Amino acid sequence: MSKREEYPGDDNYSSVNHVADALETPATAGHDAEADPFAEETGSEPKSVPETPDQESGMVGAATKSSGAKRRKGKKPISELAPLEFSGRFAGGLRADLLRRVPLYVSDWTEAFTGGNCMKTTASICFLFFACLSPAVTFGAAFADATDNQLGVIETIISSGMSGLIYSFLSGQPLCILGATGPELAFPVVFYEICQWGGMEVDFLAARVWQALWCSLFTIIVALFDLSACMKVCTRFTEEIFSFLISIIFIVGAFTTLIKLYLADPDVEGDDPAAPANRAKAFLGTLLGLFTYFTAMWCRAFPKRNETTPLVRKLVANYGVTLSILLYSGINYGFRDVDVPCLDMPDEIVPTATLNGTGESRGWFVNPFGDETASGYDTPGVGFIFFAAVPALGLAVLGYLDQNLTTLLINRKDHNLKKGGAYHLDLLVCGIFIYPICGFFGLPFTHAATVRSMSHLMSLMTREDSTNEHGQTVSKVTNVVEQRVTHLGIHCLLLAALGLSAVLTKIPKVVLAGVFLYMGVTALPGVQLYERLWLWLIWDPKKYPQYDYVTQVARKPLHLYTLFQFSCLAVLYALTKVPNPYISVIFPFFIAFLPLIRKLVPKCFPSVWSKEDLKALDK
Known about the structure:
two-stranded antiparallel ribbon, 27 helices, globular, disordered N terminus, HCO3_transpt-like_TM_dom, transmembrane helix, membrane, Bicarbonate transporter-like transmembrane domain-containing protein, HCO3_transpt_euk
């Protein structure tokens, strides 16, 4: 068995014995058939073990061969386990994660300030602060509406900031950003309705403590028994559907914010005296949102221009999003009489929920056994405490999938990361720290936020254009600043924002919608499903971009595979838009079934896709 191997789901693995080498050169060796869940389908062949030449009596080669056979039959040493490999031991994967990441911990902090990385890390903190603040405020308002103000904006900002602080110090992949997500919104809505079902009126916050503890238990079990290794079955098919879905949610959300300006009451087209003001508000808001997006995209491409010096071009590119926010927030302030809606921030740092009949805010700590006098709700009984394990299981599944799929996307080979992943460690941090803290302090649960995480990754990338064998210009990642400082800085600013409401309330919502549009659009390049969808608009096959899969797969199976993948994407998106929260909670379970769907459907139509086609499309 070689010291360095490549496994599905983490192409940047390097053994602990070669950490220094891994920091310079990414692993490029192939993976063996035993580790590949689709080895039979794609025709992968197991790697042979070279025999030691017998130079003298023939005993050396025989002994080496015998030793290799015993090693293959026995368990691999912990230090040689790949991030998504079953160890066959209790907490074996977790111990391998620690062995892989602990030697790199100091460099995780120093790399942000060495090699000219300071400008890029500072710009990333500024950009991601706004990218994380706006969803926290948006989801906080949604939580307040859905739970009768049991959860709100203040709790969502604190939850995101607290999770980020813990994760920046203890996680195995600090490029991943935690926060409130769209799929997670359905779970507290359903759980709140369960607490009110049949006239029970169980204390929602107290019941959430038990939900958090059950979810924590399930997550810790997953981490200790290497169950993240099950993500090996997730190929590019599943990863791209999930990534494309989150990008679509951000893009649609941005345009929804702009469209709502035209649906104000009174109607912008009506005869009401307020209609002209609404028209002005809608027009100015649309311009601010779209120009924020276009300016950010222009700044992103500025290094390719010849104007000014390289330093100025680099500054504009790195701080482009932040400059766009400041510029158009300033323009809006100049037209403040138009009254474009701005960010809503809490005035006080107090819990949203109030005590029964007093109007005073509840305390920060939530008693898991409830307090009928203070809350006015029934305390959770023993039966309800055990019943809370059922919705907690769904929440744990969502956390498992969000966390691992997002980390898989970050760790993809084409991102050229040089430090290995730590999937089991990341889940353990969520199970031991984040979920219980959120429960006991009445905060919304946080999960890996895909678009924010990918935006974080891309803000730390360095790309270079090159020409492929077909003469086309392609952009490749040459370096990523892999460190923890940006994660810490983003969430320190997020918590500090609670004291800066007077300033932040001057930022128009439409400007942040432009940032969302930018994040969604910039996350799409490199997603093959997105590229293959564009092929539908090119009617002459001779004019297709010469991607590898275009040259290796015939036109019919290529487009049918795209249709198959797009259909799964459409079903997932429909689940996020179903108004009934009881149906929306099916979302994570459908994601869990995607690898099985990917495996079974091609087997049902063997005449449509050959093994070679599937290997080219899903490698």
